Amino acid sequence: MTNDLVLRTATEADYPELEAHIHRAFLDDVDEDTADLNRKVFEPGRTQLMTDDGRIVGSGLVITRDLSVPGGVVPAAHVTGVGVASTHRRRGVLTALMNAMLTEAHGRGTEPLAVLWASEGAIYGRYGYGLASWRVSYEIATRDTSVVGTAPDGARLRQVATRDVLDEIVAVYDRVLTERPGLSTRPGQWWEYLTADPKGWRRGMSAERTVLYEDAGGVRGYARFRTKAGWGNSGPDGEVRVTELLAETPEAHAALWRFLTSIDLVRTVKYMHGPIDDPLPHLVTNPDALVGSAGGSLWVRILDVPGALAVRRYAAPVDVVLEVTDTAFTGNTGRWRLVADDDKVDVSRTDADGDVALDVRALGSLYLGGVSAGTLAAGGLISERAPGAVARLSAAFGWHRVPVSVEVF
Length: 409
Ligand SMILES: CC(=O)SCCNC(=O)CCNC(=O)[C@H](O)C(C)(C)COP(=O)(O)OP(=O)(O)OC[C@H]1O[C@@H](n2cnc3c(N)ncnc32)[C@H](O)[C@@H]1OP(=O)(O)O
Description:
By secondary structure, the chain is of the alpha+beta class. It has three domains: 5-111, Gcn5-related N-acetyltransferase (GNAT) (Aminopeptidase), CATH 3.40.630; 136-295, 3-Layer(aba) Sandwich (Aminopeptidase), CATH 3.40.630; 305-358 and 367-397, Nonspecific Lipid-transfer Protein, Chain A (2-Layer Sandwich). The chain is built from ten helices and 21 strands. It has helices at residues 15-25, 93-108, 166-177, 190-194, 250-260, 280-283, 305-311, 360-367, 373-378, 389-397, and strands spanning 5-9, 47-52, 55-69, 72-84, 113-117, 129-131, 134-141, 156-161, 209-215, 218-228, 231-232, 235-236, 238-247, 266-274, 293-296, 298-302, 318-325, 334-341, 344-349, 356-359, 382-384. The chain has a seven-stranded mixed β-sheet, with helices on both faces. A hairpin with an 8-residue loop joins strand 17 and strand 18. The model has no long low-confidence stretch (mean pLDDT 96). The structure holds acetyl coenzyme *A. Acetyl coenzyme *A is lined by residues 25-26, 79-84, 89-95, 116, 118-120, 122-123, 126. The active site is at residues 124, 409. Residues 5-149 form the N-acetyltransferase domain.
């Protein structure tokens, strides 16, 4: 092995080697069926590579998408495809790649945030990312519970091939996104990519199906899911795995879950992207049968503190001075006065004393409204300098819906 490490931006021609490298880093092989699929969403100009003697040994991809935040939708650098060859680990390759990705995104001046899903939660805090949203993974024993009630008159469910109803589900997704923080926009070929349904993505399950919920106003919700037949000593033991479920109305939400948990021959329904504030446990006959376990999902790295603070909305009027520390992007360091009331938000640098002091990582956790300032203060991650400031911050940064990221990108 040589030690001729070079950091560079990718080109289109790097794609085949890059794809093999990423699969290897994730302990997988390139599947003939899925080969080239990721090319649909590959942005070579935003992809950083580390090469050793010309061969790729490290990668980090940035994808240009927006993210819903409390009261808005903002450009956010979506970081993904981070992988370092096993032969080159723990020598600072990830650090070099991450610095290059964040510097490029910061330099654009248009993306106040970077976001990612972490393969392992221990990795990204050191780069200023804060864990900002959570998910509930359900494993529902359908024999032990059911969703109460019935759908209203005139409502109906329609089971279809996902690709045949793309326009309808895109419209639902885009409407839900304006109400719920943490969702990523799906520009360009994203929907085509996500619904391509190659065999390699099925992991022993069926092709993807979609069920739509419609009322007099049109489609109000959908669930994309796969099924698997199974037989045990006591009869059928089938499984449903939900890829994504989004609903605009309470009726759509209940009807979709009622459908999924009552399919004949199915004994288990799994879904890994439930929001923490999902009303489902309150709608079933026995919430214990949902077996939900919570885990982290989206990590947020604030790249531009005043820009990020100005672009979201606040749940309560607030006038507070945040004393922020950021060792990587030092322009963020300092005291920022945030004054917000309804739709008016003003952020300015100030010499006034800080009401609270926090690192940019804690600000990332706070940002989407899914982690309260009180929680962070209790952990020593926010220091209160003015009495009552943490309570005011908690009220202002909270949101009526918690963030959820429904897609591991
Ligand atoms: C957004 C995404 O794409 S998530 C996917 C991340 N990729 C994977 O999980 C694939 C398998 N793993 C890998 O490819 C590599 O091990 C990586 C990318 C996680 C780390 O790459 P490396 O080049 O070894 O990291 P690097 O040497 O730059 O380490 C930087 C720091 O992170 C720490 N670190 C790196 N990996 C881990 C880990 N898995 N768990 C805990 N700490 C870690 C290092 O100890 C080091 O700490 P220090 O700053 O205190 O010295």
